[in-house]
């Protein structure tokens, strides 16, 4: 079993538990990270969640505001209102 082998490799002081320090010093920790990433992708895929973890609505637009990347620049609320107003006028004409 892989878990038993990992425990034997990582637990250098043979206490039966793995400390954070032992895990960090262990050369094989990348295999654990890869396994967790693979598990996350598999579960997410089975649940219909994309790999980036962002729930998207129609057209691929993020559902939650905090998931939207605005390019790191703050949004000017007045400019946003103006743009929305112009788009509304265009749609209504």
Major sheet? none
| Structural class by sheet pairing and helices | mainly alpha
Distance between the termini: 68 Å
Order of helices and strands: HHHH
Tertiary shape? elongated
Low-confidence stretches: none
If you average the pLDDT, what whole number results?
75
As a whole number of angstroms, the C-alpha radius of gyration is 24 Å
Hey, roughly how much beta strand do the residues contain?
Answer: under 5%
Percent in helix? 40-55%
**What count of helical segments does DSSP give?**
4
Tally of extended strands? 0
Question: Could you characterize what this model shows?
Answer:
- This protein is mainly α and 93 residues long.
- The chain has a domain at 1-61.
- Helices cover 53% and strands 0% of the residues.
- The protein has 4 helices and no strands.
- The chain has helices at 2-10, 20-25, 29-46, 77-92.
- The longest helix is centred in the middle third of the chain and has 18 residues, at 29-46.
- It is elongated.
- The model has no long low-confidence stretch (mean pLDDT 75).
Task: Write a compact overview of the structure shown.
The chain has helices at residues 2-10, 20-25, 29-46, 77-92.
Which features characterize this protein?
4 helices; 53% helix; 93 residues; elongated; mainly alpha; single chain
Topology:
Layout lengths: L1 H9 L9 H6 L3 H18 L30 H16 L1
